[in-house]
Specification:
Layout (H helix, E strand, L loop, with lengths): L1 E3 L1 H7 L5 E5 L6 H16 L3 E6 L17 E2 L4 H10 L2 E5 L9 H7 L5 E6 L9 E4 L6 H11 L8 H14 L10 H12 L4 H9 L4 H13 L1 E3 L4 E6 L1 H6 L11 H5 L6 E8 L4 E8 L5 H8 L3 E2 L3 E6 L3 H11 L4 H6 L3
Parallel strand pairs: 2-3, 2-5, 3-4, 5-6, 6-7, 9-10
Antiparallel strand pairs: 1-7, 8-9, 10-11, 11-13, 12-13
Length: 341
């Protein structure tokens, strides 16, 4: 764990501040939940806050308390730049380096003259003035809960904060089934329910809001699934044509890679998603046991994340990207065969 200049940060926040809170590009449940959860907390402490996101996020997260106040850098650039120029400090949540917000927003943030505070659980974070980094924790939302606890303010957690934090913990742990889910995670979840989080409603809002097209796209993805038992590996290619066939919307591919990981005997799963607009192939990696997809993504696909969940990208064609991926597997055969659940 890295806890840098926390006492100084605590003293700094004793006075009302203008705070901007930022999540990563293509924000997920943990990014939205943690930023809004922290916003609600800071608002109750008398600070002036604004949440910024680099771009759009999935429809199944648009119900989270406070989401209507979020500014998007790609659509509301003037409002975002104005908020940044007036802020005293920027909190960076659920990402470990400025490039994770995209080039345009990174260029703006690189000119920022005040301090940054990082709260994040991804590996190998960049250095910032104030840091709370812990790669052992399952989600940034759990870290926000810990952050509030460090200020001895758990009594300030109300239904809105509890709902935001529950959502991020739930989504980043795969509904509490991943290895990163600890007994402390469950104790925190219990407290959030006691403080007003409606677990059944949250689960339904996130997981039971599938469109017909999204389910059809899932069907196509599963029909594209390829299994390489000799490497305990499975992967799914999704082309631009596949997406367009089912009126793809942002978030429609969320969680599909986990179906590949659910195949009996598989310890390494990947989904390759062609994105013609950005001229890249987006890649999500998942693993079980000791095989580190974080290191694999960093080594070969301009990515990173956690040991068992990471992302990456390729600027080559989807066919060449998959060919590169499969050509790497023999090098890791022993690790994959000896990984464990």
């Amino acid at each position: 764990m890295i806890l840098k200049n926390f006492k100084e940060l605590s003293s700094y926040l004793e006075t009302s501040r203008r705070i901007v809170i930022i999540g990563h590009k293509n924000p997920d449940g943990d990014a939205i939940g943690s930023t809004l959860g922290l916003k609600h907390y800071f608002d109750k402490k008398g600070h002036t806050t604004q949440v910024l996101m680099p771009n759009e996020f999935p429809d199944f997260l648009h119900w989270i308390p406070g989401v209507e106040t979020v500014y998007r850098f790609d659509r509301q650039n003037n409002q975002c730049v104005k908020a940044l120029s007036k802020s005293d400090i920027i909190f960076l949540l659920d990402f470990n380096a400025l490039h994770r917000v995209g080039d345009d927003m990174k260029n703006t943030l690189s000119k920022y003259e005040n301090d940054f505070a990082l709260i994040d659980h991804h590996q190998q974070p960049d250095d910032f003035t104030y840091m709370y980094s812990d790669t052992s924790i399952c989600s940034t939302c759990q870290m926000v809960y810990n952050f509030i606890e460090m200020f001895d303010d758990l009594d300030l957690i109300d239904e809105n904060i509890a709902t935001c934090l529950y959502t991020g913990i739930m989504t980043d742990t795969g509904s509490f089934r991943f290895r990163s889910t600890t007994s402390k995670t469950h104790r925190i979840i219990a407290d959030l329910i006691d403080k007003g989080a409606k677990n059944d409603v949250i689960h339904s809002n996130v997981y039971d809001a599938n469109s017909f097209n999204r389910l059809q796209l899932l069907g196509r993805a599963l029909s594209n699934l390829q299994v390489l038992p000799e490497y305990k590996t499975a992967f799914i290619p999704l082309t631009q044509k596949d997406k367009e066939s089912f009126n793809y919307q942002k978030g429609d591919t969320e969680g599909i890679v986990n179906y590949a990981l659910s195949v009996k005997g598989i310890v390494f799963a990947v989904i390759f998603i062609e994105d013609v607009e950005q001229k890249i192939v987006k890649i999500s990696f998942r693993s079980k046991g000791s095989f580190s997809v974080n290191q694999f993504a960093r080594n070969y696909f301009n990515g990173g994340g956690h040991d068992n969940a990471a992302g990456g990208r390729s600027e080559d064609s989807i066919e060449n990207t998959i060919q590169k991926f499969t050509a790497l597997l023999p090098k890791y055969k022993n690790e994959l065969m000896n990984s464990y659940e």
